[in-house]
Design a protein that fits this description.
about 10% strand, single chain, WH-like_DNA-bd_sf, three-stranded antiparallel β-sheet, 3 strands, mainly alpha, Tscrpt_reg_MarR-type_CS, DNA binding, about 140 residues, Arc Repressor Mutant, subunit A, transcription regulation, 6 helices
């Protein structure tokens, strides 16, 4: 029998292992932190380094290294901040957007392949669990 404490532990391990398996199944590319930063820039638009670090939950020095690598790869450009001439904004380039799209597509294809190998009952259970999983990501969610 599963105890209440088993569920968070099993979910944590399963999500981590699935994420790692999807990363490893694809072609080499930017690391997890870089992909996450690119996705944030894709959604939010250009951001100051400190704001991007805050949204990603990492130190500014860590984000500085990530962004420097992304700039060097051509995935992110540094643009002057129109509000403060001393500052700059990190902005996802067209190449960065294409790369992000390709990585997502590749990982979704791998995930589809794994889901197709599940039994009908397990696919149905996975689909039924999606609203609860999505609610875990919604800070404003109603616990009901």
């Amino acid at each position: 029998m599963t105890t209440p404490n088993d569920v968070p532990h099993r979910l944590f391990l399963a999500v981590g292992r699935l994420s790692r398996a999807l990363r490893q199944a694809g072609a080499p590319g930017p690391g997890h932190g870089a992909i996450s930063a690119m996705a944030t820039l894709d959604i939010q638009g250009p951001l100051r380094l400190g704001d991007l670090a805050l949204k990603e939950g990492v130190a500014a020095a860590t984000m500085s290294r990530i962004v420097a690598t992304l700039v060097e790869s051509g995935f992110v450009a540094r643009e002057p901040d129109p509000v403060d001439r001393r500052a700059w904004l990190a902005e996802l380039t067209d190449e960065g957007r294409r790369t992000l799209h390709d990585l997502r597509s590749e990982r979704i294809r791998e995930l589809c392949s794994r889901i197709e190998r599940l039994s009908d009952d397990r696919r149905a259970a996975l689909e039924a669990a999606l609203p609860a999983l999505e609610a875990l990501l919604d800070e404003e969610s109603d616990p009901a």
